[in-house]
Design brief:
With about 200 residues, the chain is mainly α. The protein has a single domain (about 5-195), classed as Tetracycline Repressor, domain 2, CATH 1.10.357. Helix content is about 75%, strand content about 0%. The protein is built from nine helices and no strands. It is elongated.
């Protein structure tokens, strides 16, 4: 009797191997042969789940986006302090550094490839929506009601977090977690004061 193969799990494993390779070597260096070798399978297995390299790479980009959103969502649902919640996306752990390396590898494609542009926009929209909910909860507002002030503050906060995280990826020794948290906390204090003033 042939072994039962969980195709969804196998596809996910192949994509995860490709994700690791992109994080280590960048997009252009990754081939089906390398992915197959690292996965301990044949190139036929890889091509069974992904019709071409572009299809596989797009899935890698989606994985990076999902992993960060999942971490942030869990921290939010656990009602962590806002600085602690936002810290889960910072590139100060090996997993997060790898995610940021994958993002950097793909962002150059987002301006000239519609599929990457759409995925980037989708992820940015989900992230901003979650930041709005974080601030609405912080200020004891209805998380489901649109609020122009919260929208503006959320955009500033997401820009601060993304900006310091990018600096950390590019110069990790200059940006320890304590410095990143200090800057994020300072920005939150400014946002709090502005919200209080109306």
């Amino acid at each position: 009797m042939p072994a039962i193969v969980d195709h969804d799990k196998r596809r996910e494993q192949v994509a995860s191997v490709a994700y690791d390779l992109v994080a280590e070597m960048g997009i252009e260096a990754v081939t089906f042969r390398q992915v197959a070798g690292a996965a301990g399978s044949s190139t036929a297995i890889v091509s069974n789940y992904f019709e071409n390299k572009g299809h596989l790479l797009h899935e890698v980009y989606r994985i990076a986006n999902r992993r960060v959103m999942d971490r942030l969502q869990v921290a939010f649902e656990q009602d962590e302090d806002l600085v602690d919640c936002l810290s889960v996306v910072l590139p100060v752990t090996e997993d997060n550094r790898r995610t940021w390396h994958v993002w950097l590898a793909f962002w150059g494609r987002a301006h000239c490839d519609e599929a990457y542009r759409a995925e980037t926009a989708r992820n940015a929209g989900e992230s901003l929506a979650l930041y709005r909910r974080m601030l609405a909860r912080r200020y004891r507002l209805d998380e489901q009601v649109d609020n122009p002030q919260i929208e503006s503050l959320a955009r500033r906060l997401i820009s601060t977090v993304g900006g310091v995280a990018l600096q950390c990826v590019l110069a990790p020794d200059d940006w320890p977690l304590s410095r990143l948290r200090e800057i994020i906390a300072a920005e939150i204090a400014i946002l709090d004061a502005e919200f209080a003033q109306g």
